[in-house]
């Protein structure tokens, strides 16, 4: 179970409850903030209330997100599961899901869906299975993670469109990019900028790889998160649906 004390920098712990054979229980250490910065949540504790908006523009102008905690071992474990594809220069993707406790989100499940991959793309299939897992476990969709086996650590035009669907559902949702061949930055945790990036992608009707104009304010479309805590004491499950 999640610890009630305030996380410091990173955290992990294992569950004692029996789990189904398709679930791999992973250890988790105490929390550490990725690019740490104090975060004062202004959103109501109930996500349904936080999402009570009347238009896309209201979503774009939503308040600051709540803290998001991720296990310090999650990325490493994901890369182990992606190794077979990575060795073949094929992308791998996973879905991040979790719970809300004391006005903080915790990623407690890494779901690996059935998928079709190339060297620069990854498309989930049988998505109803993902929804079924989230529904049965009462999990919030907190983002996604995928590899760039041959490229650097960045968000492609396809990536930002994929992430838009997560972030409009929940402002806390993140996109994690794993780039093992990028010597300067082998991973990144990103969100679309608000309101700039969200507005640009909301208005874009193109598909596939394509360029985007910068937001009206001249800022970036996406940026690295400064309010995500890498928590060494956080437990999580790996649910492989492949």
TrEMBL record:
<dbReference type="InterPro" id="IPR000555">
    <property type="entry name" value="JAMM/MPN+_dom"/>
</dbReference>
<dbReference type="GO" id="GO:0046872">
    <property type="term" value="F:metal ion binding"/>
</dbReference>
<keyword id="KW-0862">Zinc</keyword>
<comment type="similarity">
    <text>Belongs to the peptidase M67C family.</text>
</comment>
<dbReference type="Pfam" id="PF01398">
    <property type="entry name" value="JAB"/>
</dbReference>
<keyword id="KW-0479">Metal-binding</keyword>
<keyword id="KW-0378">Hydrolase</keyword>
<dbReference type="GO" id="GO:0006508">
    <property type="term" value="P:proteolysis"/>
</dbReference>
<keyword id="KW-0482">Metalloprotease</keyword>
<keyword id="KW-0645">Protease</keyword>
<dbReference type="GO" id="GO:0005768">
    <property type="term" value="C:endosome"/>
</dbReference>
<feature type="domain" description="MPN">
    <location>
        <begin position="68"/>
        <end position="196"/>
    </location>
</feature>
<dbReference type="InterPro" id="IPR037518">
    <property type="entry name" value="MPN"/>
</dbReference>
<dbReference type="GO" id="GO:0071108">
    <property type="term" value="P:protein K48-linked deubiquitination"/>
</dbReference>
<dbReference type="GO" id="GO:0016020">
    <property type="term" value="C:membrane"/>
</dbReference>
<dbReference type="GO" id="GO:0070536">
    <property type="term" value="P:protein K63-linked deubiquitination"/>
</dbReference>
<dbReference type="InterPro" id="IPR044098">
    <property type="entry name" value="STAMBP/STALP-like_MPN"/>
</dbReference>
<protein>
    <submittedName>
        <fullName>AMSH-LIKE UBIQUITIN THIOESTERASE 1</fullName>
    </submittedName>
</protein>
<dbReference type="GO" id="GO:0140492">
    <property type="term" value="F:metal-dependent deubiquitinase activity"/>
</dbReference>
<dbReference type="GO" id="GO:0061578">
    <property type="term" value="F:K63-linked deubiquitinase activity"/>
</dbReference>
<keyword id="KW-0833">Ubl conjugation pathway</keyword>
